[in-house]
Design goal:
Elements (H helix, E strand, L loop, with lengths): L1 H22 L12 H7 L2 E14 L7 E14 L6 E7 L15 E9 L2 E3 L7 E2 L2 H11 L26 H28 L1
Parallel strand pairs: 3-5
Antiparallel strand pairs: 1-2, 1-4, 2-3, 4-5, 4-6
């Protein structure tokens, strides 16, 4: 009787575990705990900025879920090629797919982003978070004080004078043209003389 009760209890526990596991997301996000140092190293772009707008849109590639897009007014760039004061960052919406979710508008964040051409994306594993004094200090200790998001100044053309080079004189430059004119006049003269003889 005790054996049957033990088996019944074991079956009940296994059934309960099965129900719990069955309710968990099929593709849960699992991030390895990372330090700010490793997050700054792994990111293509690290910058701070205030979110001015948040938009959600369904994926267009036939997959389920939504993509969040954040309009960000950038105030400081610590790493990467961000050169405009306004950028867009995208992320998965769901936390189960490591998305940032619905970040708060009018709040300042530190973004640890990946870039694909002009596209910027971020996820919850990368380190993107509210720009607390502590987090900004950590980033500045690792990457310096950063810069304003201005485009790089184009390099000015530099003209170098060739050593001992003297400009060509006008007579030297005009000589080939004068020679062609003389040859043309001589040819015209010869043709007229031959025509007069005929």
């Amino acid at each position: 009787m005790f054996v049957n009760a033990g088996r019944f209890l074991a079956a009940l526990v296994l059934a309960g575990i099965g129900v719990v596991l069955g309710q968990l997301p099929a593709h849960a996000c699992s991030c390895v705990s990372a330090t700010t140092q490793s997050q700054t190293k792994d990111a293509n772009d690290v910058f701070t900025g205030t979110i001015t707008a948040v938009m959600a849109a369904q994926k267009t590639d036939g997959q389920r879920g939504a993509i969040m897009t954040y309009d960000v007014e950038v105030d400081r760039v610590y790493k990467g090629d961000v050169s405009t004061s306004e950028v867009q960052v995208s992320s998965e919406r769901g936390s189960s797919s490591c998305g940032l979710g619905r970040l708060a508008a009018d709040k300042r964040y530190v973004f640890f982003a990946q870039s694909d051409g002009t596209e910027l994306s971020a996820d919850s594993c990368g380190g993107t978070a509210r720009a607390s004094d502590r987090l900004v200090s950590k980033v500045e200790r690792l990457l310096g004080s950063g810069r304003a998001p201005v485009p790089p100044t184009p390099e000015k053309a530099v003209f170098t004078m060739v050593a001992d080079a003297q400009p060509e004189s006008l007579t030297r430059l005009a000589a080939p043209g004068v020679a062609l004119v003389l040859a043309g006049l001589l040819g015209l003269f010869v043709v007229r003389r031959l025509g007069a003889r005929g």
